[in-house]
Specification:
Structural class: mainly beta
CATH class of the largest domain: Mainly Beta
Largest sheet: 15 strands, mixed
Oligomer: single chain
Length: about 425
């Protein structure tokens, strides 16, 4: 295991990780950044080097996970100004890494990129950053032996849906109907139509369609939640899914607070809160994104948490990114492990995101102390879906397929904290 702080000194992080000082070959320049956004542990992003960087480390033969840490130091650098490739073991795993684009157009913001399943056969792990436009940059890196999230204990399962009924189980799910642009400037309307939402061959299908009305494109899709039916506080959530392909798609597997007004200051129960500019229920009461994907980066998957102290408006949202095979070609497992002190996200068992409860945290940075519910949807367009360019109207219809959703109780000493309302029963 290697954790290297490139161009800086030793760093002991709040999550228990220690990064040691390290130098690399090929560096043309080095520097430091006074302030970093979007990280509980900013030190590893503050020191950096620039240039056609190479890093080599002796490791045992085997399979590894590589995580790279970056922050763009220059506010004048825009998306497209600094682009470089990442080659590992002579294979180019990323053709174009753009730190500013990957971090939502922001400089001085922490970016982590995890590359899984790297096989080393010669006892040396070699990493190269190759210029495409401008000079590459690097703050820190981690090399860890591949350790997959273990199989859950079946006795700890408290709820599952394998979609083995002819229709969606409405004792567990709510179907939402929304107009376009209610949130995130998204282009689709959410409907309860069978063409948008159905069970097919033992899988949940959420399918987006395009229609042309009076010469203009309109889009429909579906969004379902477990709000008030399966509400979860702490535990493990596993979702097996195949994602849609194409510019403009924005599928998500995520969680929202079951009491969105718990930490709201200017709105209360019964008021419309999602997409309401005059209600701070979001982000105050939190959001957990188990999986988000945008179609202009087909092999990238994201996990994020949003809080009052850290969300996109102040550029402090905490997020991770993993690079994998194109996610439309096969089913993949997306997992979340949520406990009283931290939240971890995994793809196919590979860990790529952690949010540790900050020391002395109050609700503004840790609102994750009350029940949340699941949300499954496919958005079209929107601020992020269109970030890579306009919607490709040739792709429709496009679908997300879900094989199963499973919830397991928390592994700690706490009692099960998953609630399900059953027909004719109680909590």
């Amino acid at each position: 295991m290697h954790r290297l702080n490139i161009g800086g000194g030793q760093v002991d992080q709040s999550d228990g990780k220690t990064f040691v000082a390290a130098e690399v070959t090929g560096a043309l320049n080095s520097g430091s950044i006074d302030q970093i956004f979007g990280s509980n542990d900013p030190a590893i992003y503050q020191s950096y080097v620039e240039g056609p960087i190479s890093v080599s480390r002796r490791v045992s033969k085997g399979s590894y996970s590589l995580t790279l840490h970056f922050a763009e130091p220059d506010d004048a650098v825009k998306a497209g100004d600094r682009v470089f490739a990442v080659a590992v073991e002579e294979s180019q795993l990323l053709e174009e890494l753009d730190v500013v684009l990957f971090r939502d157009g922001r400089a001085r913001s922490a970016l982590t990129v995890t590359l899984p399943n790297i096989v080393v056969t010669d006892g040396t792990l070699d990493v190269r950053l190759v210029p495409v436009k401008g000079q590459p940059i690097l703050g820190a890196l981690e090399v860890e032996p591949a350790r997959l999230l273990g199989e859950p204990d079946p006795s700890k399962m408290v709820w599952e849906d394998n979609f083995d009924y002819p229709e969606l189980d409405l004792s567990s799910w709510n179907v939402e109907r929304w107009e376009p642009r209610r949130v995130n400037d998204e282009d689709q309307a959410y409907t309860d139509r069978e063409e948008n939402l159905r069970i097919e061959d033992g899988r949940l299908i959420i399918e987006a369609h395009r229609q042309v009305i009076k010469g203009a494109s309109t889009y429909t899709s579906a969004r379902i939640t477990t709000h008030g039916k399966v509400d979860v506080q702490y535990g493990r959530i596993d979702v097996r899914a195949r994602l849609p392909k194409g510019q403009g798609t924005w599928p998500a597997i995520w969680m929202l607070p079951s009491d969105p007004f718990r930490y709201a200051s200017n709105c209360s129960d019964g008021e419309r809160w999602q997409g309401a500019a005059n209600c701070d229920a979001w982000p105050n009461s939190g959001e957990i994104d188990i999986m988000e994907h945008v179609g202009y980066q087909m092999n990238h998957v994201h996990a994020t948490v949003h809080t009052k102290a850290g969300y996109w408006v102040n550029w402090e949202q905490r997020k991770g990114r993993i690079v994998a095979a194109p996610v439309d070609q096969s089913f993949n497992d997306y997992s979340l492990v949520w406990g009283p002190e931290r939240i971890d996200a995994y793809m196919n068992g590979t860990h790529y995101f952690r949010y540790q409860k900050p020391i002395g945290a109050d609700w503004t940075s840790w609102p994750f102390d009350h029940p949340f519910h699941l949300v499954l949807n496919v958005a079209i367009g929107g601020a992020w879906g269109r970030a890579g360019g306009p919607i490709d109207n040739s792709i429709f219809p496009v679908r997300m397929e879900i094989e199963h959703v499973r919830v397991y109780r928390h592994d700690g000493n706490r009692p099960p904290e998953v609630q399900q309302k059953v027909a004719g029963g109680s909590w």
